[in-house]
Amino acid sequence: MKAIGIIGALCVIVLGSSLAIGQTVRGNPKEGQAIYEKNCLRCHGSQLDGKGPDSQDLIVRPANLQSSMVRSKTDWELLVTISNGVLFSPMHSFRGKLTDQQMLDVLSYIRAVSPPDVVS
User: Fold this and answer.
1) Which residues contact 24 (CB under 8 A, 6 or more apart)?
2) CA pair distance 31, 29, nearest whole angstrom
3) How far apart are CA 91 and CA 64, in angstroms?
4) What is the mean pLDDT of residues 82-110?
5) CATH code of the domain made up of 2-20+28-113
6) Burial 4-19 (b: 16+ CB within 10 A, else e)
7) What's the confidence (pLDDT) of residue 1?
8) What are the residue ranges of helices labelled H in 1-120?
């Protein structure tokens, strides 16, 4: 439980200045596409469906960014995943590899291709 608090605090420090909870993403989807193609496409695929060329070699399959489960996540939740990665999976942290703005750009691209699933 303590580790979650530390991770949460780090996310607030790292991304807090860029995106408050519930705030709309202010990234550049065109820039995000180039970053996605360089860093994410091999696992998540060109259709963001988790079927990239390296996905069949992974024990834990990459997330399908088109799925309703992923689309229902908040921008904040997705940024935390991009920034910190996912424990016990091939999804590694991009903190220190991408700037806050680059992570926002990637998120903006993902949202442009696969908009949030709004629950009515």
Assistant:
1) 75
2) 5
3) 12
4) 97
5) 1.10.760.10
6) eeeeeeebeebbeebb
7) 43
8) 2-15, 29-39, 41-44, 68-71, 75-84, 100-113
* Joined tokens for residue 57: 């070699």
- Give the residue extent of every domain in the chain: 2-20+28-113
Q: For residues 117 and 70, what is the distance between their CA atoms, to the nearest angstrom?
A: 8
pLDDT tens for residues 1-53? 444 444 454 445 445 444 444 556 689 999 999 999 999 999 999 999 999 99
Residues 90/60, Cβ–Cβ less than 8 Å: yes
Residues ≥6 apart with Cβ < 8 Å to 91: 43, 62, 63, 81, 85
